[in-house]
Write a structure and sequence with these properties.
134 residues; four-stranded mixed beta sheet; 4 helices; alpha/beta
């Protein structure tokens, strides 16, 4: 019996970061170079599962009634750390001048979370790490 390997979609979800933001064109170029699809997500996507959004599936028609911080975020799926492709993409994005203070890789756990859950978790972690630095 052969094992069935599921490849995660090569995608980056962008929260509060679109073509009107400084560095967007460079992020778009980095995504093309690395074979990553960019998907801008907004309030209407907050009830969608992260894994489904990365796969290009639409979010459900309802959105949770939760205030998610406006801090821009990039959530990456489908790139491997082992072969260096994730590091290469992150380096290219870092050189873009883009203001993306929240960056995360989709994990087996987080792909089953709603976008709002993941964004809240990322913001809490960011605040905890930067407490007293700002």
């Amino acid at each position: 019996m052969k094992a069935h390997i599921v490849r995660e979609p090569r995608c980056a979800l962008l929260w509060r970061f679109d073509d009107s933001c400084t560095g967007y064109e460079a992020v778009e170029q980095a995504a093309r170079r690395c074979g990553v699809t960019l998907r801008t997500v907004g309030n209407g996507d907050l009830g969608g599962l992260v894994g489904d959004l990365c796969a290009g599936k639409p979010a459900p028609d309802f959105a949770p009634l939760i205030a998610v911080p406006e801090r821009p975020a990039m959530i990456v799926s489908g790139l491997s750390h082992q072969n260096g492709e994730l590091g290469r993409f992150i380096d290219l994005v870092g050189k873009s001048g883009a203001d993306l203070p929240l960056r995360a890789m989709v994990t087996p756990t987080s792909k089953g979370w709603t976008l709002s859950q993941l964004l809240m978790e990322l913001n809490q972690e960011h605040d905890a790490v930067n407490e007293g630095k700002e």
